[in-house]
Amino acid sequence: MASPEQDDKDLGPVLDKDGVQLTVDDAIATVTLTNPAKRNAQSPALWRALAEAGRSLPGTVRVVVLRAEGKSFSAGLDRRAFTPEGFDGEPSFIDLAHSDDSVLDGAIAEYQEGFTWWRRSDLVSIAAVQGHAIGAGFQLALACDLRVVADDVQFAMRETSLGLVPDLTGTHPLVGLVGYARALEICATGRSVLAEEAVSTGLANIAVPADQLEDAVRDLTTALLAAPRDAVIETKALLQGVQGRAYDDQRAAERAAQARRLRDLAGVGE
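Now predict its structure.
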């Protein structure tokens, strides 16, 4: 599936390594998972490449589209992580389990860096999700601000079923989107969430037939770029802060943000 913003242009990648490709076309960046033969299974090297993609974005970028080649968005963690051999050049998860607390915590924190930058206030990120988005794949989709899904999507959080917990930043957005009780049930059972439920619970913004996913993402990207950048940044920051503010504090934040916007539009210095 071609990137929605590439159209007929052949944009050279800014980054292309370890199953991750980044292309940039002015205000739009596309991050693509490029290992469809393994259903875009994830590894520490892929997570580092995702973090590098975030660091590589030029200042012109306003919208980042996350997509994946093949029939599955991501089948989750590559099971080699649980073998004694692990990945070439990497400590296995078994080795990490035997390390001290600071080493283990630092390793997981590094893995999380590939999932944290998608919600930067100066960007809007869209995950275009088809097929399976399992475990780490589900959490990567949750890392984005918005999710456009194909009607064949299957979200599942399988970590608990494996005796683990979701640790790649997915728990906070999941609870925020679907609520504590449903998030607990989804994680504890490991069941699949299909397209209709994803939309009805707010997990996905829209579901479309698989052959329309590219067009739907393009239309959403165009709509996001139509608004002035600074207004989008201020609005996103306001919405992101809601859960941590009391009602009156949010009112005050709205007033302060609006004052900045009015002065900017009027050309008045603060």
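The longest helix spans residues 247-266.
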